[in-house]
Amino acid sequence: MNPAAPHRALLTVLVALTASAVIAALVAVSPQLDRLMPQLPPVPGTQAGLAFAAVSFAALTIWALVRLGRVARTRARRAALASAVRGELSCGIRTRLLVQRLNELVPDGGHPVRLGGRYSMIVDELGVAFWTGGSRPRRAIQFPWREVRNIRSDSMVVGGSVVSVLELRVRRGGVSIELPIVLNDRRTGRYALTDARFFAVVRSWKAKHRAALASEGIEPPPLTAPIPIVPPQLAGAGGRGR
């Protein structure tokens, strides 16, 4: 049995119940509205206002259903990968720059790389693989460790906010390029992974990279400076001292 099936079934039931409740409520109050509307004094723009409210409600409902579908798809893919693939599993947030640079590494005539809003990555002894899809994940692209030149931390502006970015420099087909990866924070109410959790992922990827190259007799790249981890209380104290 697919381990993601219970999640999908629950979300499907919730969506169906919500839609049924909305439809039932509209049907139940429609006779009362039909009797009440003629008794109300004429107000300019009433019909336009009602139409706007109805369109807004429909748009909000559709948006909520789409969001639920995306969450279900991401959970199903993660569960399928966790049960079938070995390695460290991470979730990334798609950015236009990442997709653009990934496609710069695709040879002429190759299939373009497409990622969902939330995609998955598997990091193991073979390299880094990008996965998309739902309960039947599809590998979008993979980079063996011998193609990886460097892994480092950086930051970039996404939607007006500065977020932490894992920069994965790869070389393929004579093209060397850095891939900016924004890691998703799966905790409720969070967006991008930051602070100690983010740097732990960076260190883990770097360690796997060096170990894989060493096992093949390839000289690992020189170590960069240690990644600083500043506890929040110290960061706050430093800001007050200035």
Shape category: elongated
The rounded distance between the terminal residues' Cα atoms is 59 Å
Largest sheet, spatial ordering of strands: 4-3-2-1-7-6-5
| Secondary-structure content class | alpha+beta
Structural domains: how many: 2
Tell me the CATH topology of the largest domain: PH-domain like
Q: Give the CATH architecture of the largest domain.
A: Roll
Main pleated-sheet profile: 7 strands, antiparallel
List its traits.
single chain, 242 residues, alpha+beta, PH-domain like, seven-stranded antiparallel beta sheet, 7 strands
Overview of this structure, please?
With 242 residues, this protein is of the alpha+beta class. It has two domains: 5-37 and 45-82; 85-241, Roll (PH-domain like). The chain has five helices and seven strands, in the order H-H-E-H-E-E-E-E-E-E-H-H. It has helices at residues 5-36, 46-84, 96-104, 195-215, 232-241, and strands at residues 88-93, 118-123, 127-132, 138-144, 148-158, 161-172, 175-183. A seven-stranded antiparallel beta sheet has the order 4-3-2-1-7-6-5, sandwiched between helices. A hairpin with a 3-residue loop joins strand 2 (118-123) and strand 3 (127-132). Helix 1 packs antiparallel against helix 2 (46-84). Residues 1-8 and 237-242 have low confidence and may be disordered.
Concise synopsis of the structure shown:
With 242 residues, the chain is an alpha+beta fold. It has two domains: 71 residues; 157 residues, Pleckstrin-homology domain (PH domain)/Phosphotyrosine-binding domain (PTB) (PH-domain like), CATH 2.30.29.30. It contains five helices and seven strands, in the order H-H-E-H-E-E-E-E-E-E-H-H.
